[in-house]
Amino acid sequence: MLQMMYRLLCLWIVSLLIVLAQPAPCTAKMISVELVWNLSQAGWIQVDIDKGDYLLKLGNESYKFPAGSTLQVGWGGWTPVLRINHEEFRVIDGSLLEIIALNSGSLRIKTPEGKAASYRGGLQLNWQDSHWRLINQVDSEDYLKGVVPIEMSNEWANGGLEALKAQAVAARTYLVRQLSNSKLITDSPDIHQAYSGLSVEGEASQAIEATRGEILVDAQTKQPIDALYSSHSGGHTEDAKNVWGNADLHNISHPDPYSKGVGGAVNHWRFIVSAPLLGSTFGLGPVREVELNKFPSGRVKNVRLEDEFGQATIVKGRAFVQAFYPFGQPIRKEAFLGSLFEAKTVVSNRSLSKKSISDGPFNSAGYSGFLDLTKQPDEGQGPLLSKILSSSLGTNDKPQPYAVFIFEGQGWGHGVGMSQWGAYHMAQLGFKYQEILTYYYNNVLISKV
C-alpha cells in the first residue's frame, strides 16, 4: 500500500511539473504598424521618450534611451542626420534607426508642422526616398486601444459599452485576418483600420480588455472572417460583392432597423447641385435628366445622366459619390455621404418661394441653411434656388436657367458588415455584444485567438 501511494505521489509531482512547464496562454503579440495617415512624408521628426526604458540602435551602436531622452532626425543635402539629447547633429551611417522598448513605455512623435501623437511600444525609422518611413512596433491588444476610440468613440462607453466590445472583436478579427496575409499593416483608414495610438486611449480600453483575444470565425471552418464595418448602414446593410466584386457569406445584405433614426447628419443628408455644375463634373452640358440603377438594398449601382443637348453618360455609384464627397471637411447634413440615395429635380427656369417649397415635396425645414443662404437682401420671398452652385460651393451672383437637382440619402460609408451607429443603438436597447455581432455577421462564432 505504501509503495502504491509513493508511486501515485511521484506521478502527481511529475504531472504538476509538466503543467508548470507549459507556457502561459497568450492572446497578444508584437505587431508592426506603418504610420502613414499623417506621417507618410515626414522629413524632420522629433521623438521624445515619455515613459519607460528604451534602447536606441544605430547600426552596430546602441545607447540607453530612458524616459526624458530626445531624438531628432532629418536630412541635410540628401543625407539623413540625427541629434541625440540636443547634442551636435551628425550624419547617420546607414538608413535604419530603432527605438526598442525594454519594458512598458510610451513615446511621442512631433513634426515641425505641428503634428504630434503618442504611441506605446517601440519605433523603427527608415530613411527612404527623402522622407522617414515610421513603423510602430506595439502589442496587438495595445494597438486595438488606439483603434476602437477612432472607429467609434470613447464617449460611447456611457450607455453603449456593448457596442465598443463588438467593435473591439471586429477590429481584432480584421487585424488577425490582415496579418495572415501580410506582416505589416498601416494606421490609415483608407488602407486598413484607423489607428492613433496612445493619444486617443480612454474608456474604450474597457471593451478591449473585456473581450481580450476574442475574434469572429466561420462557424464551419473556424477560420477568421473578413469582419468589415462602416459608420452607418442607412437602414440596410450591403452585400460585399456589390462593393468589391467578391461574394462573402459573412457579409450579406439585410434590413437594419437599428440604424434608423440615429447618427444625426449621417442618418439623413441632402445635397443640392445645379444642372450646369452636375454636368460639367462628368463632362456634359447642363443635366436635364438623372436615372438611378439600384441594388436590392437601395444603394445606387450606377447613375445615367443626360444633358440638354442629348448627350449621356453612365457613372458608377461609388464614383458619383466620390465626385461630391466632402473629403477633409466636417461631416454635416448638407453633404453627399453615401450611395443610398434618391434624386429629385426642381423645375428649370423657376425660382421657388418659401410658400411654393412648403406646399411641395421639398419643405422649408428640409432645406436647412439654404433658406438664408440663397435669400437676397432685396427679396422678401426667397430662396432663389437657381443661384445655387452646390451645397458645398454655395451660390452664384446670377441665376442659371436650368434645373437644380436634390440628392437625399441615408447612411455613411460602404454599408458592408457591422453598422457602428446600429451597434450603438442596439447596445442602448440592451443587446449584448455577442448578439450585435451575430446580427451583423452571418454564419459566425466568437472564438479565442
TrEMBL record:
An annotated GO cellular component: outer membrane-bounded periplasmic space
Name of one Pfam family that matches: SpoIID
Segments forming domain Sporulation stage II protein D amidase enhancer LytB N-terminal: 129-217
Naturally occurring in which organism (per UniProt): Desulfosporosinus meridiei (strain ATCC BAA-275 / DSM 13257 / KCTC 12902 / NCIMB 13706 / S10)
InterPro entries: Bact_Sporulation_Assoc, SpoIID/LytB, SpoIID/LytB_N
Signal sequence coordinates: none
GO biological process: sporulation resulting in formation of a cellular spore
UniProt name for this protein: SpoIID/LytB domain protein
